[in-house]
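Quick question, first post here. What does this chain look like in 3D?
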Amino acid sequence: MNIEMNREEPIFLDSQNQQQTVITGSRSLDSPANSVTGYERNVLLITNHFSKNGNWQNKVSTDVLYNILKQINKVTITILDPYDTTLNSKGINYLKNYNLVVIDFVDGGYNLSPRCPTFVKALMQYIKEGGALFTCHDQFDNTHSRFITPEALEMLQLLGFIHCNSHGNSGSTAFFDKTAISNTFFVADHAIYGDSIPISSIHQTYSRYDESCTTCKVIMKFNGPSAPNSYEYLVINRPFKGKTLNIRAGHTTGFTEAEKKIFLSSILWLLYEI
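> Answer (accepted):
Ran it through. Tokens below.
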């Protein structure tokens, strides 16, 4: 597996002079991003794990998603730092090189919508034209009244959520929706773990699942204060020609082994399930 990294610190390849080309050709998004024409897939991972550049909470992503992607032999990874000053200049033609964009875990998110609005707009166009996106806790739902932007609201809609100015709820167990997981990669997880899995303490923040979304499925829910499995934990959507998956994991730096299996299944769903 080839790995391409962009960053400004010494361990990154210089983005102008030393960047290795790992993409063999530009992919058209006129057809679905996940149509199976072979098993090779190009994945863009946005993470601050390697640069150690912290967010406003001085948080750095774990290497969990990076290690999961490395397990998939047919995946080529390109890494961009979310705080790279060139990120906002990346447009739809750049994103078309990838079958999947993955935004790494970090509590508090990367505030991409206010910091990189042009990139977020391109990312939404990429999804609409057939791209796939993996997002998690706080990446676009950290949109309370102090930080809310039009780009964040539109991205939430693509993910199957609506904005709410409320901090939300936490939980430690996630439950499968046996109807929603039918004929998906998540069936194997249910067969292994049963009806529920233990999860690290996570919480829903400033968004809630959009009950009116006709293209969404809530694959798993987590327990809340009023009843078990009352809040969404894992939501998939097929907006326009693309695919999105949002998981509420990410509030803590540790994850259970069962959660890691869910992360792998999430990436496989985005890459291979048509």
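The domain at 3-272 is CATH 3.40.50.880 (Rossmann fold).
The chain has a mean pLDDT of 84.
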